[in-house]
């Protein structure tokens, strides 16, 4: 799977990415089998002086980490002890011939019911770095999540000097969100009213809000380091919807991996990480003793008109004090983060990602799609009051279709040849109507609600152009992509491909991007192409930017 971060009406992005069912499925399993048990259970947790009973794995928030090596087989038995249905998604793991283990409820499996269990069985192939797992039904992922650490095969070195500490539990930096309310109640209310959900009460680092919030001075994650050492920090953004800036005061980090794929190293004072993304960085600590406490802070990058949690979470980086030395009061130093809407930084940061190795580029494209990604509206049910535009309900859509969740898992229906009445295999290859996505908004914003899918033969190479028309976050499961281009405005199928980077495009595992625009129908553009082995230059002309219509 691959990812990219986009944003506002001024950060209109063209992205070309690669998609295919790769020959990697034939890779030989050479590792060992690692077994874990996840007990889904309620646990009382207190943050911001507020105690609530919430869903956890093994009573922990965040949940336990999975440590494995490339080539290992992973077996996770999930036992459901709560009243909610549950499923677990292994975010970023290439599910090569193990689609049953991917985890999205009603897509690859039926959810695990109360009192039942399910064993996830998958092998980590061709990936090294940091991934993560989370619940994949409703908003349970706000509390049910944890890291996956994929080490290189035994005897295989890193493409950089081995860090002093690489898998210490304290070197995992997992950002998330805390709701004083029950997140399930929050999303249920939003779905009923058709408005935006209430925002979280705090962001967290490793489950703790940090000292910048009221009633949270002691609830701060602390990372203790030694002077003159190089540490690997594995950073995960488990927030529900928000891209986050992250920085460590008075320290520079070197980015070496993203979404379990090595990248050409580059130094930065700040990273920007979208929901679902992971980034490994090397932190070189100061060579001399410091009696300062350095804060590690994260806050959102946001440019749209919608509401969001406009707060800052903080953790503490502290140097070990030499024994016998007089303990001096510590000076607290905070980092300088970009402004909330710093699109220039976001663009510059995204452009720094390059693949460490030269990818193999396929020259044949089997299928081509143009997807408009937007936020439209649907009618308000009778006798209901809805909070969307003009009394409607907001509805995300692709090609004017808002997905209707089935009651039978799609993969199950497909496998047993019983898809009739479950889904329709005729998802449109492009929008029915074209319009200028950066121009005057259309008058008709209504979308249809259907369960439609694209069915592709094995080993298909796909070119996918994605044109944003509103606000949306997207995660595409089970594949890898190369991000080969970005730009501003509507996609130009004649000019933009000439600027694609086919030499060292970054490969991302989850396709995760957040499109945030200045008004409900400003637009951004993304272009996706290729295979897990590489990608080819486009041969399809596609729609022209001056096309117009009155329908999203």
From TrEMBL:
UniProt record similarity statement: Belongs to the multicopper oxidase family.
Keywords: Apoplast, Copper, Lignin degradation, Metal-binding, Oxidoreductase, Repeat, Secreted, Signal
Functional summary from the UniProt entry: Lignin degradation and detoxification of lignin-derived products.
UniProt KW Repeat keyword: yes
GO biological process annotation, one example: lignin catabolic process
Name this protein carries in UniProt: Laccase
Signal sequence interval, chain numbering: 1-27
Reactions listed under catalytic activity: 4 hydroquinone + O2 = 4 benzosemiquinone + 2 H2O
Gene that this sequence comes from: LAC17
Every Plastocyanin-like domain range: 43-153, 172-321, 435-508
GO MF annotation: an example: copper ion binding
Spans traversing the lipid bilayer: none
Cell location: Secreted, Extracellular space, Apoplast
GO cellular component, one term: apoplast
Species of origin: Acorus calamus
E.C. numbers: 1.10.3.2
Source lineage: Eukaryota, Viridiplantae, Streptophyta, Embryophyta, Tracheophyta
The protein's required cofactors: Cu cation
UniProt-listed Gene3D superfamilies: Cupredoxins - blue copper proteins
Cofactor binding summary note: Binds 4 Cu cations per monomer.
């Amino acid at each position: 799977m691959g990812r990219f971060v986009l944003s506002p009406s001024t950060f209109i992005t063209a992205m070309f990415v690669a998609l295919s069912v790769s020959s990697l499925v034939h890779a030989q399993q050479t590792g060992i089998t690692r077994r874990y048990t996840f007990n889904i259970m309620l646990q009382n947790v207190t943050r911001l002086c507020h105690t609530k009973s919430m869903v956890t794995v093994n009573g922990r928030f965040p949940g336990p980490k999975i440590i494995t090596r490339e080539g290992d087989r992973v077996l996770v038995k999930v036992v459901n002890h709560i009243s909610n249905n549950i499923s677990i998604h292994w975010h970023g793991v290439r599910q090569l011939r193990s689609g049953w283990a991917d985890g999205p409820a009603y897509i690859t499996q039926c959810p695990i019911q109360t009192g039942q269990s399910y064993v996830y069985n998958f092998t980590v192939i061709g990936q090294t770095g940091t991934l993560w797992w989370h619940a994949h039904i409703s908003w349970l992922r706000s509390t049910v999540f944890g890291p996956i650490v994929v080490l290189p095969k035994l005897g295989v070195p890193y493409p950089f000097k081995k860090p002093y500490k690489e898998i210490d539990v304290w070197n995992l930096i997992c950002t998330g969100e805390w709701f004083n309310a029950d997140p399930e109640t929050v999303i249920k209310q939003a779905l009923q009213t058709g408005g935006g959900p209430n925002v979280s009460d705090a962001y967290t680092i490793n489950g703790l809000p940090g000292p910048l919030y009221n009633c949270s001075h002691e609830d701060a994650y602390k990372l203790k380091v030694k002077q003159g050492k190089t540490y690997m920090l594995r950073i995960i953004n488990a927030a529900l919807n928000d891209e986050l800036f992250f920085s460590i005061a008075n320290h520079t980090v070197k980015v070496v991996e993203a979404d379990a794929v090595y990248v050409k190293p580059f130094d930065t004072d700040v990273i920007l990480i979208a929901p679902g993304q992971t980034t490994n960085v090397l932190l070189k600590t100061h060579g001399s003793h410091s009696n300062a406490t350095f804060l590690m802070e994260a806050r959102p990058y946001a440019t749209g008109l919608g509401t969001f949690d406009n707060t800052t979470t903080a953790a503490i980086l502290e140097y070990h004090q030499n024994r016998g030395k007089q303990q001096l009061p510590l000076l607290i130093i905070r980092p300088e983060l970009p402004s909330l809407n710093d699109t220039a930084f976001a663009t510059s940061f995204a452009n720094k990602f390059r693949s460490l190795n030269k990818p193999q580029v396929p020259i044949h494209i089997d299928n081509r799609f143009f997807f408009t990604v937007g936020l439209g509206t649907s009618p308000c049910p009778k006798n209901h009051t809805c909070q969307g535009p003009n009394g409607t309900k907001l509805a995300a859509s692709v090609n004017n279709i808002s997905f209707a969740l089935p009651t039978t898992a799609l993969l199950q229906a497909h496998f047993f040849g019983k898809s009739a009445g479950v889904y329709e295999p005729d998802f449109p290859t492009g929008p029915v109507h074209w319009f200028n996505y950066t121009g005057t908004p259309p008058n008709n914003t209504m979308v249809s609600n259907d369960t439609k899918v694209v069915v592709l033969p094995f080993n298909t190479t796909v070119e996918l152009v994605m044109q944003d028309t509103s606000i949306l976050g997207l995660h595409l499961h089970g594949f890898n992509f190369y991000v080969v281009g970005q730009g501003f405005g509507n996609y130009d199928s004649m000019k933009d491909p000439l600027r694609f980077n086919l030499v060292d495009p970054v490969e991302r595992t989850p396709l995760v991007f957040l499109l945030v625009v200045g008004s409900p129908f400003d637009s951004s553009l993304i272009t996706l192409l290729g295979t897990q082995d590489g990608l080819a230059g486009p041969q399809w002309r596609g729609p022209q930017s001056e096309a117009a219509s009155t329908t999203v």
